[in-house]
Amino acid sequence: MTQKKRTPSTYQRNALAPSLLAAAVLFLAPVLLASDWAPVVLYATSILAVIVGWFAVQARHWWWIPVFVAIAVLWNPVMPFPFAGPVWTGIQPAAAVVFLVAGGLIKFPRP
């Protein structure tokens, strides 16, 4: 039995794992924001937005920088905005989709 030799990937997607974590938090955010877990959602989202933004800088995908700066500011846990209601609840899954798209598109060649 011969084994087929795998060719290594030429690209790496470092932003995929933090994007998946952020998307999971944001998809659960409407439930978590109604409980005592609201600060965890804000901290996790803003920190993961900075991490994914940094990977976008490393990959030279400059167009993602303003998107993740905006997410980091809107979900800022230090001085949170008093957002509430159906619009804020609807923005959570939209931001999760942004994280998923960015995680799939931000890639750079392996050294």
Based on the model shown, name its key terms:
single chain; 111 residues; mainly alpha; two-stranded antiparallel sheet; 4 helices; 61% helix; Apolipoprotein N-acyltransferase; membrane; transmembrane helix; DUF6804; transmembrane
Report on this model:
This protein is mainly alpha-helical. Helix content is 61%, strand content 4%. It contains four helices and two strands. Helix 1 (16-32) packs antiparallel against helix 2, helix 1 (16-32) runs antiparallel to helix 4 (86-105) and helix 2 runs antiparallel to helix 3. The longest helix is centred in the middle third of the chain and has 21 residues, at 38-58.
Based on CA atoms alone, the radius of gyration comes out at: 16 Å
The spatial strand order of the largest sheet comes to 1-2
Helix percent band: 55-70%
| Element-level helix/strand string | EHHHHE
Mean pLDDT: 93
Strand content: under 5%
| Count of discrete domains | 1
Major sheet details: 2 strands, antiparallel
* Annotation, overall tally of beta strands: 2
SSE layout and pairing:
Blueprint lengths: L10 E2 L3 H17 L5 H21 L6 H10 L11 H20 L2 E2 L2
Antiparallel strand pairs: 1-2
Helix pairs in contact: 1-2, 1-4, 2-3
Pfam families: DUF6804 (PF20619)
Keywords: Membrane, Transmembrane, Transmembrane helix
InterPro entries: DUF6804
Quickly describe the structure.
This protein has helices spanning 16-32, 38-58, 65-74, 86-105; strands at residues 11-12, 108-109. With 111 residues, it is mainly alpha-helical.
